[in-house]
Design goal:
single chain, about 500 residues, mainly alpha
Length: about 500
Amino acid sequence: MSQTSSTVSGAATAPGARPVSSRRWWTLVTVALAQLMVVLDSTVVNIALPSAQADLGFSNGDRQWIVTAYSLAFGSLLLLGGRISDLIGRKRAFIIGLIGFAGASALGGAAGTFGMLVGARALQGVFGALLAPTALAVLTTTFTVPKERARAFGIFGAIAGAGGAVGLLLGGVLTEQFDWRWNLYINVIIAIVAVVGAAFFVTSLKRSGPRPKLDLPGTVFVSGALFALVYGFSNAETDGWGSPLTWGMLAASGVLLIAFVLWQRRATHPLLPLSIVLDRNRGASYSSILIAGAGMFGIFLFVTYYLQASLGFTPIQTGLAFLPMILMLITAAQLSTNIFVPRFGPKVMVPIGMTIAMVGMLYLTHLGVTANYAVDILPGLMIMGFGMGSIMPAAIQTATLGVDGRFAGVASAMVNTSQQVGGSIGTALLNTLAATAATDYLASHIPPTASVGAQAAVHGYATAYWWGAGFFAFGAVLSALLYRRRATAPATGETAATAAATSPTAEPVAAH
């Protein structure tokens, strides 16, 4: 940022409040690197799976655990990671998360056996669950001036939305040009840069008052609930919805989640104060992020399959095919946060983004066994990118808006939890629906020739796109109903600064 911006921000600081750090934009760069690393790891390893399987010799049935081990640990421990960052301090938690994630990545890259690789991936998930909410909490407590906060969250939201597609491209390049192990080693390089940035630019804030205790029963309940939920949907993807284990895990998740809510109502030091999620705007944001995450998997999963299996694209070509979508997402994110969200608020922007994403998904339903990328695929991807770029910044910014600084970490963890759960639900549901549609198509077209098989696969993808469009349509209606009117009406810089000065932890309250 220019010196002018810094001066303006500083001028808006009330007497007695902690000055707005002049290093805050370097803090954003550092946080963005950490977020990119975590988001990348959700997709970059997918491209490397065939090569890793050939190298380590594990079966097709075991292959899913390379992905599932990460998602299980990550998804089930996010709220705990967010709360730990509240308790031990953002800077310390951030650096621990970076070092741990880098170490786990190095271990995975050096893996000589399937078990070692799965263990490393689970360890990545553990440290990712600490790193991801801490990164967002750092952003929440660093940017309190409304206009700058919007810009920072616009960049963060663009990274959150585009990271998956970048992972596909990077995974293809690293696998083809180097070795599958570099899909893990690359994290070490990113983490080293981020640790140096954190040491210099992330501010360490002192806590005033007694340190609250960790809610151990709440931690057990919610971690178990999230583990069972993610495992149940992952099992549905592989064993189908008729599996007793699938329904057993989902039922256990429901029971544990109810126990968690009941406990939070009486806990002295709740892991997740219910006021955080019961606020209409934050509740709307968390649900929008979940629905958008579920719908997005229809793009990354099935378009990737379609490009490679049906059209014969290489991994690098597949990654490049998603680049226009990323550019549109980044463009929309900047327009949204700098122009549209301040003017219209999330009540307008999130439903519009959901509707645009729905149109992009519907565009892809016409794809056949053969297609022209520029005419048949590119417009749908670009529309989807613009829609996601309109949803994510507004939803992520509002999800942490007005949260007491003491709970910024756990509120931020809810953003990642929503996205992770949405991805798990989307993957399981859309994959099952696509597989069922393909099977039904084959059954109605006898004999099942190679041509019929190709058409059945495409028919399955189209079914997933239709359902993905339905997710976004539901999200548009729900967000329009839940968000309050004029929720992001800007307040003065003095208001934010005064809130920072009166925060019991001496950390700024993320409010306009």
